[in-house]
Amino acid sequence: MLAVLEAQNMINSANIAGIDNVYTFNIPSEMVENVDQTIVLITDANTNPSIYGNNDFNALSRTIEIQVFYKKDLDIDPETIEVKLYKLFTNDYWNVGENRGHTIDPDTQQITTTFYVNNLKLLNN
């Protein structure tokens, strides 16, 4: 299964308070201007072969980008949501990588954050 789909399933199953929708690859056009929901967007950052042996690779090193677009009228601290996401991924053997900090979306004026997680998927040859 693609890493982005695994991540989407994980977040949806966790039912994290404050997250309204989780999308992969892109946000549907009808939701782009929505500032009344907190939306998580998951995209692929890279996938590379790993753990080489016998002229073959035996794992995939997968990195995904997670963007959070917070609703304008926040009723929960963004850090609370982010810590829950970090713990969710860490507890499922993903490594939380770089966080790009918080910014304001110039079009919607929403607070956003972007961070990366990666894991090593062992392949069954």
TrEMBL record:
<dbReference type="InterPro" id="IPR008524">
    <property type="entry name" value="DUF806"/>
</dbReference>
<protein>
    <submittedName>
        <fullName>DUF806 family protein</fullName>
    </submittedName>
</protein>
<dbReference type="Pfam" id="PF05657">
    <property type="entry name" value="DUF806"/>
</dbReference>
